[in-house]
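Input chain follows. Return structure tokens only.
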Amino acid sequence: MNKIFILLVVTSSLVACKKATTTTPTNTTNSITCVDNPNINFTNIGTPIGKFADCIKDIDENTYKTVTIGTQTWMAENLKVSKFNDGTTIPNLEDRVKWFNLNTSAWCYYNNDSNFNKKYGKLYNGYIVNQSFNGNKNICPTGWHVPSIQEWSILKDFTRTGLKGRNESLFETDTLSWLSPNLNSTNLSLFTALPGGRRNHPAILNGNLEYDKSPDFDVIKQAGFWWSSTNNEDKKNSRVYLLPNNNFYVGGSGDFMPLEMGYSIRCLKD
């Protein structure tokens, strides 16, 4: 009887040890188990062409849903971080004149209002993504990067192929995050594009900066703009990916824009 009891104790201990070993996370990256991926009912829309992946955290401990679309894995939310991934702080610059005259990295909230951050993320100037100016730093979490315009094009082409030449699958479906019309949006890619608006380049008239001629911020809920890492030859402009609420063919994608503009960022897995 004693031998049986000892055997049971030893066996139970081994089972307990084995259980502890197999359930202990081996977190060697910034990926984390994602418990808040939404259960979206696409019954009346179609079959999703994207698939939720692990969530990730940035250096500020913001958590992001991610999604695999074709051969790429993207953030499914706009970036909110205030530091490069090496811990270097990026200033929040509210003043428009100082923003325009800066030639280093900066970020701001849309309309300098932090209430926009939770849904739409921050707006960043182009110096943040341009390695000629940012000291080869990376705003994205470790293992992720700001996509090139070619990588944005892969996303565009895949979603257009999947939906017969259109890009409705990239847009969140409601007219709360997006203003009307936002017609035919399906979000079948699960990319959940959100229109964070922009911070504008001041109008230049007669050689003078006239700050009153254009709004500092505009088109929130009407258009999403995302920086790419693709620069022009003089390194003073970077290409931008555009999704407007009234044009799902994204004909304006890929334009070069001044680094003084303020746009959103989505990160792509390496």
